[in-house]
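ESCALATION

Customer reports they have been waiting on this structure for their group meeting. Please prioritize. Original submission:
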Amino acid sequence: YDNAALVKRIEERLGEPLKDEARMDLSQLGFYHRHHIARLTDEEYLQVETEVGARLLQRAAQACGWEPGEVQGVLIGSSGPISTDYTERIARAAGIPESAIKVSVHKACDGSAGALHLALNPALGTQNPANHNLAEELLGKKVLVGGIEGLSRFIDASNDINALQFFGNGAG
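Update from on-call: job pushed to the front of the queue and completed.
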């Protein structure tokens, strides 16, 4: 939905017009579209998000000039993955080898930035109780880092006007 269509969707959802003072101008922050999907079962959400994630990883590999089978590491940030093996499912669907390192980072909106920080910061390994240094382990490998959000499944039942305008789904 572009910003104008989003207002109409929210008004339909709430059953009343959105007051001018409640409208957020998110285009100032670079938000021009929000993506929402219909209410689905948990299994359907998992299927959709796995497909979206697989396409994300395949296109990211392609942008790097790699085949998915060459990828040696995947880090995916997400606020609320729908399964405990979320990253593994997405990587498998994308054709990434089982041997690739797969890490899920749950940090809300900055999950992909948090994943990148984790991959590039060897000093973080010294804070790990197991002394496992992910950045050193990934050094020199073909690694994809991204974020996938399926937030419409959380906010669809909300009456919070700000949340309905601000949050949506995406991958990048």
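Sent to customer with the following note: The first strand starts at residue 73 and ends at 77.
Escalation resolved.
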